[in-house]
């Protein structure tokens, strides 16, 4: 299989084609059903301008994400000439598929058949790998699509609410050649539902990546750390709630990230409680005089603080950096 340099090369992914169709439907429904009826108010024009800006940004950053080659610099250099760094041991890692020495956090993507610098994941929606080269475009695309779908949802709700006004119903029927307002309501309602679903998915993905950036790990490293953590945990009979939670985490990585953040927050809270228990509590002057001073009180209090705070790992995702050891490695499914 030839190396894929970007996501606009054939064959296209079905997810990618689906995203093009969905974006096309959103744009068509907005400019076809919303714009003609809202050019006569300042609020309508402002919403149209905002929507156009977010949709334009989504298209531009979507193109940049898809078209940017995220390959390791050594792989790109090898395409145009003999590799400057080659042979096992020449680089930090050596990829036997690309036959080139690559950087430590580079991983080989089997779908693109190339090594990707600071490999994050292979995204089927843009049909290419996300890595150091296009990660910033990918984040900007998520933010722009999130804004676009939020505005799409807002305008759909506004249009549906507007149908309670008889003059707006007359405008709809006049503008669209007698189209029943019920048909307009159904179209806008479906647009709103699709926009709500897209907004939820995109925003949870965006927050997931913001969490990864905060922790300094990639999606690949996060998944590897999660699998390692799961393998280390002893099998225990789980409740229905636990099984449900495990299943949710597999399908929605954002929840895993939230859970890790919660674990970390709980550990910090426990550590703060432990520190607070070590410090003597401030008491008022009258209390101070009435309480007998007993040596060693604070020491006994510190012993009562939860000891698990310092024993617990600081978060499995952080171990992901340690997982980056050898290349080539399989891309996550
Ligand atoms: Zn490779
Ligand atoms: Zn890939």
From TrEMBL:
Q: Which UniProt keywords apply?
A: Acyltransferase, Membrane, Transferase, Transmembrane, Transmembrane helix
Q: Which GO terms describe its biological process?
A: protein targeting to membrane
The membrane-topology field of this record reads: Multi-pass membrane protein
Quote one Gene Ontology molecular function term. Answer: protein-cysteine S-palmitoyltransferase activity
Task: Return the broad EC class.
Answer: transferase
A Pfam family: DHHC
List, alphabetically, the InterPro entries matched. Answer: Palmitoyltrfase_DHHC (IPR001594), PFA4/ZDH16/20/ERF2-like (IPR039859)
Q: What domain of life is recorded for the organism? A: Eukaryota
Per the record's keyword annotation, is Manganese included, yes or no?
Answer: no
Tell me the segments the record calls region Disordered. Answer: 272-333
Q: Where is the composition biased (Low complexity)?
A: 302-333
- Name the Enzyme Commission number(s) assigned to this protein: 2.3.1.225
What catalytic activity does the UniProt entry give for this protein?
L-cysteinyl-[protein] + hexadecanoyl-CoA = S-hexadecanoyl-L-cysteinyl-[protein] + CoA
Q: Which family does it belong to?
A: Belongs to the DHHC palmitoyltransferase family.
Name under which the protein is recorded: Palmitoyltransferase
Query: What does UniProt list as this organism's lineage?
Result: Eukaryota, Haptista, Haptophyta, Prymnesiophyceae, Isochrysidales
């Amino acid at each position: 299989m030839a190396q894929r340099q970007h996501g606009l090369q054939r064959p296209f992914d079905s997810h990618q084609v689906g995203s093009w169709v969905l974006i096309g439907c959103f744009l068509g429904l907005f400019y076809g059903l919303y714009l003609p009826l809202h050019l006569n108010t300042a609020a309508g024009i402002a919403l149209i301008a905002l929507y156009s800006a977010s949709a334009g940004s989504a298209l531009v950053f979507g193109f940049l994400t898809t078209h940017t080659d995220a390959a390791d610099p050594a792989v790109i250099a090898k395409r145009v000439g003999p590799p400057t760094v080659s042979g096992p041991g020449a680089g930090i890692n050596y990829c036997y598929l690309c036959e080139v020495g690559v950087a430590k956090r580079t991983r080989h993507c089997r779908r693109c058949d190339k090594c990707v610098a600071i490999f994050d994941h292979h995204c089927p929606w843009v049909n290419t790998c996300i890595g150091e080269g296009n990660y910033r475009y990918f984040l900007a695309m998520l933010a722009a699509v999130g804004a676009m779908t939020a505005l799409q949802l807002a305008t759909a709700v506004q249009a549906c609410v507007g149908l309670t006004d008889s003059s707006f119903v007359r405008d709809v029927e006049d503008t669209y050649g007698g189209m029943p307002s019920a048909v307009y309501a159904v179209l806008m309602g479906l647009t709103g539902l699709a926009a709500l679903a897209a907004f939820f998915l995109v925003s949870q993905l965006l927050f997931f990546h913001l969490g990864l950036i905060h922790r300094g790990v990639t999606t690949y490293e996060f998944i590897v750390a999660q699998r390692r953590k799961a393998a280390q945990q002893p099998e225990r009979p789980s409740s229905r709630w636990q099984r449900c939670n495990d299943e949710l985490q597999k399908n929605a990585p954002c929840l895993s990230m939230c859970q890790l953040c919660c674990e970390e927050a709980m550990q910090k809270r426990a550590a703060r409680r432990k520190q607070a228990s070590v410090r003597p509590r401030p008491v008022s002057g009258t209390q101070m005089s009435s309480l007998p001073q007993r040596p060693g009180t604070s020491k006994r209090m510190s012993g009562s603080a939860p000891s698990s705070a310092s024993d617990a790992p600081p978060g499995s995702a952080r171990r992901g950096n340690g997982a980056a050891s050898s290349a080539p490695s399989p891309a996550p499914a």
